[in-house]
From TrEMBL, chain A:
PANTHER family: INTEGRATOR COMPLEX SUBUNIT 9. Gene3D superfamilies: 3.40.50.10890, Ribonuclease Z/Hydroxyacylglutathione hydrolase-like. SMART domains: Beta-Casp. SUPFAM superfamilies: Metallo-hydrolase/oxidoreductase. This is Integrator complex subunit 9. Residues 527-552 are annotated as: Disordered. It comes from Eudyptes chrysocome. Keywords: Cytoplasm, Nucleus. Belongs to the metallo-beta-lactamase superfamily. RNA-metabolizing metallo-beta-lactamase-like family. INTS9 subfamily.
TrEMBL record, chain B:
It comes from Eudyptes chrysocome (Western rockhopper penguin). This is BRCA1-associated ATM activator 1. Keywords: Cytoplasm. The gene is BRAT1. InterPro entries: ARM-like, ARM-type_fold, BRAT1. GO terms for cellular component: cytoplasm; nucleus.
Amino acid sequence: FFQYCLSGHPTLPCNVLKFKSTTIMLDCGLDMTSTLNFLPLPLVQSPRLSKLPGWVLKDGSTFLDKELKECSGHVFVDSVPEFCLPETELLDLSTVDVILISNYHCMMALPYITEYTGFTGTVYATEPTVQIGRLLMEELVNSIERVPKAQSASMWKNKEVQRLLPAPLKDAVEVSMWRKCYTMPEVNAALSKIQLVGYSQKIELFGAVQVTPLSSGYALGSSNWIIQSHYEKVSYVSGSSLLTTHPQPMDQASLKNSDVLILTGLTQIPTANPDGMVGEFCSNLAMTVRNGGNVLVPCYPSGVIYDLLECLYQYIDSAGLSNVPFYFISPVANSSLEFSQIFAEWLCHNKQTKVYLPEPPFPHAELIQTNKLKHYPSIHGDFSNDFKQPCVVFTGHPSLRFGDVVHFMELWGKSSLNTVIFTGNAENQPNISVIHHTLLFQPLHVVCPEQYTQPPPTQSHRTDLMIDCQPPPMSYRRAEVLTLPYKRRYEKIEIMPELADSLVPLEIKPGISLATVSAVLHTKDNKHVLQLPPKPPQPAASKKRKRVSDDVPECKPLKPLLSGSIPVDQFVQTLEKHGFSDVKVEDTAKGHIVLLQEAETLIQIEEDSTHIICDNDEPLRVKLRDLVLKFLQKF
Amino acid sequence: MTRECSLLLPRVCAALADPRQPGSDDTCLEKLLDWFRDLTQFDPTVNLLQDNPCLMEFIASMLALPEPSASILSFTLRLAGILAASENRFQHLQQEKLLVRLFGRDGPLNSAVWEDASVRSGWVEGVHSMMHHQPALHFLCNGGGIDVIFTLQGDPSLFVASAASQLLVHMLTLSVESETTKPLSTKDCDWPACAQMIIKRIEDSLQSSSASHIEQSLKLLTSLFGSCRATWTEVLWLGIAKQIESFLTEETVQAQHMLANLLLNMAWSPVFCDTEGSFWALVTSALEHLTPVQAGPLAVGILRLYKCPQDVRIQALTVLLQPMDCILRAASQPLEYAGLLDESVSDPVTVENLLSSKSSCASLLCQTLAHLEELLSLIRLPVDLPYTSLLRFLMTILQFCNGFLSPASPLGSTISRILINCFRVQRSALDVLAALSERKGCDTLIGSLFDVLLAYLESPNTSPTVLKKTFQATSKWLVRLQELSCSNSQWQQTEKILQDVFLVLQKRLCSPCWEVRDSSLEFLTVLIKCLRDQDEFRQSLLSSEVPRLTENLLEDPESYVRASAVTAVGHLAFITYFAPESPVIGNQYNKENTVAKLQEILSTDPEGFPRRAVISIFTKWLRQGCTGQLEDTEKFVSRVIQTVEHDLDWEVRLGGLELVEVFCSQTICQLGLPKCPYAPVSSAVTSSIHQNESLQIFCRAKLFSFLFRSLCDCDKPVGQRACDILLGLRGNFYPISTLKDSQGTEDSPAGHGIAWLQRTLRQGSLAQNFPTDGGNGVDFQDPESMMLALGTIDLEELHDELNKSSDHVEKSPQSLLQDILATVGTIEENEADCY
């Protein structure tokens, strides 16, 4: 049991589990927080951004002023944004057999793994995960590729140079590993390696382990995974939610009785009372619009936005906002809104039943029909004709570094009437409370990112937001290899019916029978089978054709097995009966030594062995042996 | 008893005693008993029994039944008790041995019906009713009744058990007070026989090892000391004090929880609270030995006492404030009341343990907070509470609950973990906080207090109910803040706080949760009510977005919110449009628009609440003289009453009448009729002109048609109010001596109409036959006719008629007896009874 931890980001996990003979990658989240160190990519020329001063070192040297720009006291890299990949040096990623994806946010690094490392295995994910994941990747690629940037900065990454930079650039990890965004062909190639699975489907990996996705309640098609063999069960709990929103509820029962529970993909945001946060979202939105301002909601094109639209659907009429336009701008806006309506089987029960009614599961269809919600692939084209203020805009990317959101930040950023509402953690973001719930299933061992074992850094007194269990959880950080605290003890072996038929059990204690087995252990594809031993070679019918069978070992007649214990007192009496007069018994730590002084012979009796040590007196040894055997059972 | 009733009674008795009849309605039987109670209360003679032999026959026939119904038997027992309450009737009943047979060993007591709780209850009540004289006392004591009552104290039916306990208290008191010849003293306690029996039983059960017996006796003593304040109770107490004291210290008997109430009742009794020494020592011991949860009610009860030794008071305060002390220590807050708490009386470790346990923390805190609120609600407190520490304590708890406090101590982090998001504690703490605002002495903390309150107002995690309480506390403290800033001129702090409050109020007014919008509006209304005279308040409010958002909410989809918005906008008008130097705020609503908008709500809103709110705001405006000159006001009132006249909601119509009343008295007052005590004395001539003028105004405003129509309103309060107003008007227009005789007015055409009106009003059918076009000769806008109507119509008669309760016909004993007969179906001539 080994776990290689390739990502230190608790909500963007990437771990590799070596379990029995398989190597399983659990999620491949892409840490996009690295892009926060870069200047935004404006869709149209921004005089503000292009006029930023270059950064000058303390000693006045200006060699970095082309690469680094200063803005409001912070330093940014002026280059195409780059992403921090999962650790690739910790183990040879071409040896990974399978990748299990838990939700569409945790697969964004997939093309880097499948296309750059020699990976030849299979990826497993549910259909909505793949489809929505594709949308997210498409949006990502699109929003970066449509604003080509001539310049690519690399000088600042030099270790010597990086040391001189101000925080947070100074403390950025593994900058040499940061990569530019992948391309659409790479996305397509990566997605082609995915095999679709359904909830509770059992997938055999090489006969050694079985993996099963379970609903995790977080997003459409999101899953937790059970990885189990006959005697071991590992539960991988990634982004999970106990709240009732649009996805199928979390399957908790199947997580019971795990030997190891790996917890990731959860936030420790303390103020995530979802009703309160939705109320906050609506109140701020209404207040801004009523005061004549615009609202910008940076978001991903799928997931939380469905719930937000649903809340707004109920709210806008009552708040007198019916005349305020809602815009959803994303290259994949249309597909996202349509996809969400067709994944009926992945929705919560309430929404599933709507599939049988003449109304779509999500009310955003009605918002679109009534023209309250309008969606556009980008700010160019139709949008610029329809654009009316004040309005509410949902668009990506939440990092505010690329995508259409950059444009609105530039457009509206100067007026205090306007509001930006970040919703990342607003509603459905999996919360640490899941952990406390999950711990009720009493797994033997818990493995989690080190962040979970401490209160959140901003609220150090909130000890209620950390994992507290017995035995204490094992924590991991980026680039660490853990030996999981669980030892494998048993392996299942099948026995062929004919062989079983030939066994003759002997009851040695009430209720316990034993039988000797002579068989050939046949191991293939991690399955072990006991087969009948080959018949002893027949006397050769024809000497000419005598051939020794190479693969089957020759069977020797078996010695009987012994059981029982030797009562020393009775044994001594027996020796005396047989003429040994000077018997002396010594107690040792493990048993007894019987000394026959005259014969210069020792009989060492221990719990699981008896030795007769005598000097080349074979008849004596045989005699003594037979006396010993009288006390033991044979079979 | 009327003749009719005495004629009906024999048949009723026969019907009740008839086992073939279905059981009668319980309420009828209760009413029947009430009637007998009234009949016998002031008449100790035997006349009732002699005049109505059917009563004793009824009892006898019930006793003769082999299997009487439980409810009728219970009724019989209680009836016999009521009848036997006077000594004469007692003896009379005893002559027939009826009481022995009912209440003695061979009565229901030893039959199968005793299993029925209603029979046991009837027995106890019957005995209780008759227990007003010595013969009854002896009858029961000698017949072994005491044993039965003591047994019934443990009855599975709580009603029976409690009634038995009360009965014993009553008997003990009666025995001591009616049979003692010389005052009892500790040295020579010669109890009367019956009291002796009861006291012996109490002492025995206190010494027994049975927890339930001890509990019953403690209950009995608790209610005895609670109801009887005579000196002999002390003699009784001295006999049992040692035993009771031992309950505090001995772990073997679980009786501690009963002791707090007992001691509290004793502390209120002058017999004990005036004594020096032993009683208060026992109270001290109780405060020390009872658990904090048990001692809490005792402590708070003691703190309410004026007659109490100072050291006991401090000990009680210690018990009450121990959780506060513990919380403040856990939060490492400085303790500012050194020497206040008496550590010897209560062990802080016990409280710490309770507060660190998830199951007891919240309930102990809530109990403490409820007690503090109780004390703070008293106008005069016999004890000085440490207000500053109390405020610090409340702030600490509130910060624990929203996770804003990072405690340094391990105890603090345990408590913080338990309390996070605990709504129950938040609500209690905010209640106490609101009550605390009235007390002086916490002013230094007011700045940080508002930090806590604002954090609650801002946090999305604050639940709607907690938010409402936060608003209540905030409004109280804002008033306090304003008072303070008047005295110390710290305007800047006040201004900043007000700005922050309005900023968060803006957001809350846009909440998707209607409860939040509603309580935000209520909060705003309260603030305007209390602070509208303060310049800083007006400025902060008017420079925020709150007024505009409030007016938006007049169109809220939720009717409660619309109603609250109407009230808030109505109050807002006092500082916008109606203020002398009203700063006009630029929005869609100016004064005219607002009035028109409220008018529109009054006439079109489909829900009652917003319409009620509008009419009450209009009345408020009128009262405060905001509706402009008399002429404008007349038009305004006329418009409003024509709108509400047909409203389906009676409260709106009633509100309309209130408006009319205010308008009438203001008009009359302005025009100088003697009605107004402050009006200058005017000569008879001008008075009559003014009479005419105000009468004309009322007629033009169409008040009279509204008032007369309301007299026959299907909802009684409306009719009553209209009648009161008309009577008031008549008082103004007619001095008593000049009232016209209703005879002889029919000669004139107007007189015809008024006579018709008088008849129709008597029939109560004016609402159906209301003359819309001056038909029937009544012109409600003609001053002369109306003057005539006021003078001729017998408004007093109408007033009396309207004030009769709706069941005044059905409430008579005769009707009750007829009902009983009707339900048992033996009365044929009464088939058409309205029931």
